[in-house]
């Protein structure tokens, strides 16, 4: 439940953006968020634990299933929804949905939930970390198939921005890990406040631009309900689909937990950062963040529920084994 404060702050930022969109003109939010993004990935590089990363490396079947789900199955599900949007690939709502599908898994909440459910923690750490690294390249590559003709989307420019704002800080963090890694991991919760503050500012900035440009006035209530319904459907299709795949592949209970929890997650942090890097201050950035915000809230609530059920099941199995 500790994530609820963060979600509440995000929705508060949207409300403030609605009543006070002028904040983007008064405060240098672009500069602040650009610096914040750099620090997010610098600390991400510092906090990557080589020992834990290596420990989960060999569980290759689980890794393949999770990464294929995150970067292939999700985008394909979004593509299957294309007929439900009249404007097709020209629909901002569909692009927002597809953007959700291309995002990597979360890091912190995946690990926390797998730990709570008594799943395979080293495998979860490896997959969450790997997903974040792959997503830096996979998300813009997927988007390039549908946004190449868009004047706001220049793939080479996007790669340059990614290098400066994400890849270079990440490599610097990895390079300085021996010196500062233990410090970063020890103060992970405090450093996480920087991540959350940056995301809240990006959300405020994005929605301020959208409200100022009246971008939401063109979106019908039916379309928003349809989008929400599809996002909810995505979660359940992937969650229960992964459960079937795990059973077919003969995964043990702990690996099944890890696969379902990591494979269904989508990262609000990466989504907010990618919106800022790829789309800049475009008017529709608030709309593009809408599906990932809905999905993020949904995944936390549902995974927390399933985590508690799995935890009881694992404890029951372990108790039974001890008796035998």
Description of the molecule:
By secondary structure, the chain is mostly helical. It has a single domain (4-318), classed as Na+/H+ antiporter like fold (Up-down Bundle), CATH 1.20.1530.20. The chain is 81% helix and 0% strand. It has 15 helices and no strands. The protein has helices at residues 4-19, 23-26, 29-47, 50-55, 60-80, 92-102, 108-116, 121-147, 155-175, 177-186, 188-212, 221-249, 253-264, 268-279, 285-323. The two termini are 36 Å apart.
> How do the helices and strands follow one another from N- to C-terminus?
HHHHHHHHHHHHHHH
Overall geometry comes to globular
Class from secondary-structure proportions: mainly alpha
CATH architecture: Up-down Bundle
Overall CATH class:
Mainly Alpha
In angstroms, what is the radius of gyration? 20 Å
What is the strand content?
under 5%
Query: Quaternary state, please?
Result: single chain
How much helicity do the residues have?
over 70%
Mean pLDDT equals 83
Number of helical regions:
15
**Total number of distinct structural domains:** 1
Low-confidence stretches: none
CATH fold description: Na+/H+ antiporter like fold
Major beta sheet summary: none
Q: How many DSSP-defined strands?
A: 0
Calculate the terminal CA-CA distance, rounded to whole Å.
36 Å
Please outline what is shown here.
Helices cover 81% and strands 0% of the residues.
């Amino acid at each position: 439940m500790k994530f609820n404060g963060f979600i509440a702050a995000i929705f508060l930022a949207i409300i403030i953006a609605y009543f006070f969109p002028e904040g983007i003109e008064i405060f240098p939010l672009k500069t602040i968020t650009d610096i914040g993004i750099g620090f997010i990935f610098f600390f991400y590089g510092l906090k990557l634990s080589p020992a834990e990363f290596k420990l989960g490396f060999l569980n290759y079947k689980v890794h393949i299933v999770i990464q294929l789900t995150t970067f292939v199955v999700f985008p394909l599900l979004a593509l299957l929804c294309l007929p439900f949007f009249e404007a097709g690939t020209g629909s901002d709502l569909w692009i927002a949905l597809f953007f959700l599908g291309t995002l990597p898994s979360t890091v912190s909440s995946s690990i926390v939930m797998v730990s709570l459910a008594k799943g395979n923690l080293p495998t979860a750490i490896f997959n969450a970390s790997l997903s974040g690294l792959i997503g830096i390249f996979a998300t813009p590559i997927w988007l390039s198939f549908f946004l190449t003709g868009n004047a706001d989307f220049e793939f080479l420019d996007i790669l340059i921005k990614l290098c400066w704002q994400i890849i270079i800080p990440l490599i610097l963090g990895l390079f300085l890990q021996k010196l500062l890694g233990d410090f970063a991991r020890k103060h992970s919760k405090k450093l996480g406040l920087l991540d959350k503050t940056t995301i809240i500012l990006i959300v405020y900035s994005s929605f301020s631009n959208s409200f100022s440009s009246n971008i939401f006035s063109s979106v019908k209530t039916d379309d928003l309900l349809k989008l929400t319904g599809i996002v909810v459907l995505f979660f359940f299709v992937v969650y229960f689909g992964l459960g079937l795949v795990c059973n077919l592949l003969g995964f043990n209970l702990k690996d099944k937990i890890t696969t379902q929890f990591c494979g269904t997650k989508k990262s609000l942090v990466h989504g907010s950062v990618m919106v800022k890097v790829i789309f800049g201050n475009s008017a529709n950035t608030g709309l593009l963040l809408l599906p990932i915000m809905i999905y993020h809230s949904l995944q936390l609530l549902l995974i927390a529920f399933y985590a508690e059920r799995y935890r009881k099941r694992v404890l029951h199995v372990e108790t039974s084994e001890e008796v035998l």
